[in-house]
């Protein structure tokens, strides 16, 4: 694993809300810390109501994790553009995050321990 990335089980139960809707809760989330950045919670895809997600054309590349695909959250009242991402085929050093989704907190999205 890249020496500045740490992945560990996130303790407790975590929730993600977007556009006023709870779109996921998990007791099996992962906490990824990269360098000096704040930790990011990655939710197992099976714990997210993926019917709210719409994959977009946006992609980014991280030299430590690989290519990220992005998703918008679509609810009855709003569309939150590119607020979720996933590494569909992460680098071997961070293989634990395959099948997980992460969310940008803020602007209508809340990720919190409950």
Automatic annotation (TrEMBL):
<dbReference type="InterPro" id="IPR007361">
    <property type="entry name" value="DUF427"/>
</dbReference>
<feature type="domain" description="DUF427">
    <location>
        <begin position="15"/>
        <end position="105"/>
    </location>
</feature>
<protein>
    <recommendedName>
        <fullName>DUF427 domain-containing protein</fullName>
    </recommendedName>
</protein>
<dbReference type="Pfam" id="PF04248">
    <property type="entry name" value="NTP_transf_9"/>
</dbReference>
<dbReference type="InterPro" id="IPR038694">
    <property type="entry name" value="DUF427_sf"/>
</dbReference>
């Amino acid at each position: 694993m890249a020496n500045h990335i740490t992945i560990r089980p996130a303790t407790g139960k975590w929730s993600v809300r977007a556009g006023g809707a709870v779109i996921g809760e998990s007791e099996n989330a992962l906490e990824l810390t990269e360098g000096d950045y704040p930790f990011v919670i990655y939710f197992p895809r099976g714990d997210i109501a993926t019917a709210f997600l719409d994959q977009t054309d946006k992609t980014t590349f991280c030299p430590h994790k690989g290519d990220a695909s992005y998703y918008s959250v679509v609810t009855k009242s709003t569309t939150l553009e590119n607020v979720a991402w996933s590494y569909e085929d992460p680098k071997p050093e961070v293989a634990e995050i395959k099948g997980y989704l992460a969310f940008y907190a803020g602007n209508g999205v809340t990720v919190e321990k409950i």
